[in-house]
């Protein structure tokens, strides 16, 4: 496509390509529907509701209804439907529909000249904040049927689960504030510093950039709102906002023993927003960690007991993956005499066993995207890889990723000799080592596992026992069953091509 093409022509070309992609599906998917000439207003209204809700469930930004495409074979046959001239109850069709669709969504009808055939495309945004209803009833698309959403409670629950994070991030932490009040509550200088943007020399420029990243939004009468996203990231003091925001502060607690019943020797509730206070929190924790003496080639140096990169990545993960809709609690970091535990509220989106290899997913996409942009967490979801790699380099026991109640907990263990590790800990280290090797394009074998666990070569049988236990637990698989010396891979590698 030439550089001189007009924006209008580019839009037309994109629309034609979109229709071609939709026609290429072997069957109608839940968020796409084809019609020829059916222009029943009641049916169109139900389909707007059903397709919008289905799009949100399918993680699609839009749903589509196309007239002029035959349902059976998706052939482009053309249509006589003209939405711009259709009337219902003495009202233009589009207005009549808009009055009956709640919450209001910006659906649009678009006539298309598709390779000489006239089509009509209805573009429907995915449900934004609550299930989309038509005439006070929400619908859903299941196969070729359009039943009421309330008749399928499992889909209704799944839809709300998709909608709640969206609602939270775009919700309002404070409303109808003057410009001075906004700047007094937010560390806007940290926003510009962390995003690598020069600080504008006027207030209009500051608010333009903050609103672009949805930190604030314009309210009526020349006033402003601070979004939940803006407050939780850049608050000067989270306590200045409602309890639902204030309780999201990161808590740090250090004990003088291995139990929560032991004496608390340090406690800090980080009142700054996550982005504004992140480095300060990491530095504070690092300053409290026990140190080990490391002798290099020429110098002695003190190193923290736990790898700094592991702590940084795990705390960042706890911030961005927490379920913000769980009230009354936020991320918690606890330091014991023999371990560190990092807990965030909410069930994980993927199984803890798959944290290492799964593509990055977050309930809080805007928060995660902005923190990645500010380089406070990993861009490509490699944070857990770095955690496990750094743990192996420090010869520490394998971290434990687990679900406890309605929370995710990660445990980093202090140094422990191989003889002091439990069978479960040894097998967990074997699995994580195999997974880390696999994502690095390598295979685990007896030799690499011995090096990982500090087993001397004359005790190779000990590594063989651990490998057998991991095989029996279906955590690893032979890389090539016909060639035992080919090494081992994690259990999920067997499902990949």
UniProtKB/TrEMBL annotation:
<dbReference type="Pfam" id="PF04326">
    <property type="entry name" value="SLFN_AlbA_2"/>
</dbReference>
<dbReference type="InterPro" id="IPR038475">
    <property type="entry name" value="RecG_C_sf"/>
</dbReference>
<feature type="domain" description="Schlafen AlbA-2">
    <location>
        <begin position="28"/>
        <end position="146"/>
    </location>
</feature>
<dbReference type="InterPro" id="IPR038461">
    <property type="entry name" value="Schlafen_AlbA_2_dom_sf"/>
</dbReference>
<protein>
    <submittedName>
        <fullName>Putative HTH transcriptional regulator</fullName>
    </submittedName>
</protein>
<dbReference type="Pfam" id="PF13749">
    <property type="entry name" value="HATPase_c_4"/>
</dbReference>
<dbReference type="InterPro" id="IPR007421">
    <property type="entry name" value="Schlafen_AlbA_2_dom"/>
</dbReference>
């Amino acid at each position: 496509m030439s550089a001189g093409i007009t924006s209008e022509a580019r839009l037309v070309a994109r629309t034609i390509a979109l229709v071609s992609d939709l026609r290429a599906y072997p069957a109608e998917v839940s968020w796409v529907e084809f019609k020829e000439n059916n222009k029943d207003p009641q049916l169109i209204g139900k389909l707007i509701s059903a397709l919008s809700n289905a799009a949100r469930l399918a993680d699609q930004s839009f749903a589509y209804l196309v007239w002029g495409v035959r349902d059976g074979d998706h052939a482009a046959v053309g249509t006589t439907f003209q939405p711009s001239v259709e009337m219902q109850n003495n009202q233009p069709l589009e207005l009549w529909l808009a009055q009956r669709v709640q919450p209001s969504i910006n659906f649009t009808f678009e006539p298309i000249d598709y390779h000489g055939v006239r089509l009509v495309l209805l573009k429907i945004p995915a449900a934004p904040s609550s299930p989309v209803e038509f005439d006070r009833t929400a619908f859903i698309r299941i196969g070729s049927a359009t039943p009421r959403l309330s008749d399928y409670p499992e889909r209704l629950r799944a839809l709300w689960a998709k909608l709640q994070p969206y609602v939270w991030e775009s919700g309002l932490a404070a409303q109808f504030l003057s410009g001075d009040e906004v700047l007094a509550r937010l560390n806007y200088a940290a926003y510009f510093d962390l995003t690598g943007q020069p600080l504008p020399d006027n207030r209009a420029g500051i608010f333009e950039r903050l609103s672009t990243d949805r930190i604030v939004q314009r309210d009526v009468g020349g006033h402003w709102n601070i979004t939940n996203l803006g407050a939780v990231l850049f608050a000067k003091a989270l306590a200045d906002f409602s309890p639902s925001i204030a309780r999201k502060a990161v808590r740090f607690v250090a004990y003088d023993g291995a139990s929560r019943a032991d004496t608390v020797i340090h406690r800090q509730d980080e009142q700054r927003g996550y982005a504004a206070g992140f480095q300060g929190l990491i530095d504070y924790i690092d300053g409290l960690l026990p140190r080990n003496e490391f002798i290099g080639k020429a110098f002695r140096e003190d190193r923290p007991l736990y790898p700094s990169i592991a702590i940084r990545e795990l705390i960042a993960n706890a911030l961005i993956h927490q379920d913000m809709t769980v009230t009354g609690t936020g991320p918690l970091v606890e330091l014991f005499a023999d371990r560190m535990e990092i807990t965030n509220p909410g069930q994980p989106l993927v199984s803890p066993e798959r944290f290492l290899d799964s593509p990055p997913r977050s309930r809080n996409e805007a928060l995660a995207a902005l923190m990645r942009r500010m380089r406070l967490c990993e861009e490509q979801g490699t944070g857990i890889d770095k955690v496990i790699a750094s743990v192996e380099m420090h010869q520490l026991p394998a971290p434990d990723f687990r679900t406890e109640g309605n929370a995710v907990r990660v445990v980093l263990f202090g140094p422990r000799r191989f003889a002091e590790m439990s069978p479960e800990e040894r097998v967990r280290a074997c699995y994580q080592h195999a997974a880390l090797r696999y994502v690095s394009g390598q295979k685990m074998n007896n030799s690499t596992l011995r090096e990982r666990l500090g087993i001397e070569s004359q005790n190779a049988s000990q590594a063989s026992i651990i490998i057998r236990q991991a095989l029996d637990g279906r955590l690893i698989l032979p890389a090539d069953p016909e060639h035992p010396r080919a090494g081992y891979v994690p259990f999920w590698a067997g499902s990949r091509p």
